[in-house]
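Sharing in case it's useful to others searching the archive later.

Someone asked me privately for the predicted structure of Galactokinase N-terminal domain-containing protein, so I'm posting the question and my answer publicly. Question first, with the sequence:
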Amino acid sequence: HIDYEGYSVLPMAIRQDTIIAIHKHEAGQTTKVLRISNVNPKYDTCTYPADPDQ
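And my answer, the predicted structure tokens:
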């Protein structure tokens, strides 16, 4: 196997995964948001507006 720079490489599998959870918007709740979290507590949770018209 040769990479795009022309060097030999040793391909190997790296264990990675993505877990996605979806929560239904509650009745009466006016603000829709996208909240992104990591299972590792060293990373802060990020919250963004989820406006379907944008």
